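An instance as discussed:

___
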Amino acid sequence: MFHRWERRLAAAAEGRTVRPFEWGLDWIPELRDAEGDAASLLLDWSARAVENSEEFFAAPESADFDFAGDLVTFRSPITTPHPENNVVTARYFPEKSVRGRRRAVLVLPQWNADADGHVGLCRLMNRFGISALRLSLPYHDVRMPPELVRADYIVSANIGRTLTVCRQAVLDAKLAIAWLRQQGYESIGIMGTSLGSCLSMLTASHEPIIKAAALNHISPYFADVVWSGLSTEHVRESLDENIDLDRLRRIWMPISPWPYVARMQTKRSLLVYALYDLSFPIDLSRRLVDEFRQQAVPHDVAVLPCGHYSTGVTPFKYLDGFAICRFLAKHL
């Protein structure tokens, strides 16, 4: 029943476009003028990025933040060809109690979330005594150029662009956390859903300020979700006959949680997955949980009795939201 429901919910999304496969070397400055086999160049570059991930995910210590009303804006450390995407926007939900002035969470919504995505969750965090800052991901809502109707440029069959834009999301998140620190918050966490969950773990594993991470829908590998997931079937269509899964997994390893599990040792993580998830297949989710256990990384696990899309439907969205907020309230 849940699988049929998941497929109906997924089919309701409009605007999915099968875009051409591209290696996307022009999106990676070090490879833009390189000569040779594109796949080999990307494999070598990705291996170096994982080995030197501190440098790969290094962000400026601060930015020229502008705070007006409830919006924080600043320029992204990575410049893309689309001016709209180069300005980061985050919406601030302060909680005015003594605890709320001390504790804050950066919230990274799911792929293709609109401007209202996770606003309800931010307000729920306020009720738990936690302030929230909701980040608009690259190429989402106000950061989307007019040529797009979906946030295709952050997850696509353009290999280099996907790498660069996901890296941009992490650097943007680190600067958003720097803004929270400037506001006087002492205990800072991060929370993300689906794509936002992956990006949250990349951020948490490279940002020592973060104390706790709530990772909502999880996978060890970026490539495997795109290859096998219901939400990305249109992307897989372009990947087929151009690249195999093993090569794609290795190229997209810098933006995968797998190589960074040990880096989560100094913080507490909540790992959430859904029993009937067709977008983040359950075998992938359980593999990441097993790796946390094997490496003795501090974590809690929450298993939802639903699927990926149905997580956003009553009553499951309340089960999910309360599990996340209880975890964050306990560990921040």
